[in-house]
Design a protein that fits this description.
Chain B: Belongs to the UPF0312 family. Type 1 subfamily. The complex is a heterodimer of chains A (184) and B (191). Chain A has 184 residues and is mainly α. Chain A contains 5 helices and 2 strands. In chain B, strands 1-4-5-7-8-9-10-11 form an 8-stranded antiparallel beta barrel. Classes of the chains: A mainly alpha (184), B mainly beta (191). The interface between A and B is medium-sized, with 13 and 12 residues. The structure holds protoporphyrin IX containing FE (HEM). Protoporphyrin IX containing FE binds next to α1, α2, α3 and α4 of chain A.
Chain lengths: 184, 191
């Protein structure tokens, strides 16, 4: 398989990026949901948020690469078998997923850096605080983060259901080509 | 000359003594010579200090009749500050102060019992996190007098200990941290 996308096929780069981000989104959602309910004496009380933030910030880098890669190597065109409405809906859905991802990641960053503290990424390097002047920043960003994270996973689930529908009901190549399994 | 001074002194003290009613003071919020601080044990190893930045109130006080003093304070629970934005966010959540549902805490004194020279137990109703419970604040009179800017001030400090569970605070911070100490320092400007 090639690194780059062609007009009909996804290349390895896009495929790996797609599934990495998918795993991170569901993983971070589960981790985030679980960690805010931990008791104070849980051994995860400090490590879980550290992991959540570290993975989240690495995901931000991955997403930057992913967006850049779209310009370097554009995604293949829509399948000819799909109607215009389907194509438009898919396009809109994908845009909102991208926006939602950045909204969730940026609001998460703004919670932890609200008082100027940097975020340590796996203890390897620090991401400094850049914005600290939003009124009630931690609380406001926290609310955005919570709602946007829910919206994002719900949309991601719909996105997955749509892919399964294409695979099992329409029997087209939508899911196969994101798995690198379409012939030709 | 001497006679005149003496007369002024006698008259002065007579006037002061003649104040049968206590004077009313407003907490000096403008100059913020008032603090509602708290400390809670962290794991039993150190004290975590915090403060509430936004509160206001009034008291009436007459040094000659301390038992007739009254005090009330209203505090915005969202103004909690422990020098750590993430923790403060957690403190405002429903694990602790639930500020969305209970934005204010109030204290209203019901009785003041002098306990010694310049000290008193102030009993009153504290409403915190939607729960109203009587508490006793051990208070100490610090001083009173004219300020350099034409006003008249009186100040106190006080402390009390609250059990978190009594005020429906859900989060359990461990065996050493079941209670929080409130340490209050207020200066009032005579109205
Ligand atoms: C796709 C990425 C992400 C997802 C799906 C996600 C999801 C979540 C979820 C579901 C929660 C629990 C919300 C609640 O119930 O209050 C949460 C909490 C949190 N997240 Fe994320 N998150 C992501 C990225 C990030 C990033 C990049 C950061 C910071 C660098 C971050 C920082 C936080 C923090 C600090 C909390 C705790 C909020 C609190 O104290 O209530 N998250 N996240």
């Amino acid at each position: 398989m090639r690194w780059r996308n062609s007009s009909t096929h996804y290349g390895l780069t896009s495929i790996v990026l797609h599934w990495l981000v998918a795993a991170a989104v569901f993983g971070l959602f589960g981790l985030g949901y679980w960690m805010v309910g931990l008791t104070y004496y849980s051994s995860w009380y400090r490590t879980a948020p550290d992991l959540h933030k570290s993975i989240g910030l690495v995901l931000f880098l991955v997403m930057l690469v992913r967006v850049l890669w779209r310009f370097v190597s554009p995604a293949p065109g829509p399948l000819a078998s799909q109607g215009r409405l389907t194509q438009a809906a898919a396009k809109l859905g994908h845009s909102v997923l991208y926006l939602g991802l950045f909204l969730v990641m940026m609001s998460g960053y703004l919670i932890s850096t609200a008082d100027g503290r940097a975020i340590s990424v796996f203890g390897l390097f620090d991401v400094p605080a850049l914005i600290t002047s939003i009124p009630n920043q931690a609380d406001t960003a926290g609310l955005v983060h919570e709602y946007a994270a829910w919206a994002l996973v719900i949309l991601a689930v719909l996105h997955a259901l749509a892919a399964l529908k294409h695979h099992f009901i329409d029997r087209d190549a939508t899911l196969r080509r994101m798995l690198g399994r379409n012939p030709g | 000359m001497l006679k005149k001074t003496l007369a002024a002194l006698v008259l002065g003290s007579a006037l002061a003594g003649g104040q049968a009613f206590a004077a009313d003071y407003a907490i000096d919020k403008e100059g913020q010579h008032a603090f509602v601080n708290f400390k809670i044990s962290h794991l039993g190893y150190s004290w975590l200090w915090g403060t509430f930045k936004d509160f206001d109130g009034a008291f009436s006080f007459d040094a000659a009749k301390p038992a007739e003093s009254k005090v009330n304070v209203t505090l915005k629970t969202a103004s909690v500050d422990t020098n750590h934005a993430e923790r403060d966010k957690h403190l405002r959540s429903d694990d602790f102060l639930n500020v969305a549902k209970h934005p204010t805490a109030t204290f209203e004194s019901t009785s003041v019992k002098p306990t010694g020279d310049g000290t008193a137990d102030i009993t009153g109703n504290l409403t915190l996190n939607g729960v109203t419970k009587p508490v006793v604040i051990a208070a100490k009179f610090i001083g009173e007098g004219k300020d350099p800017w034409g006003g008249y001030r009186a100040g106190f400090e006080g402390s009390t200990t609250l059990t978190l569970k009594d005020f429906d605070i859900k989060m359990d911070l461990g065996p050493a941290s079941q209670t929080v100490d409130l340490i209050i320092s207020v200066e009032g400007v005579r109205k």
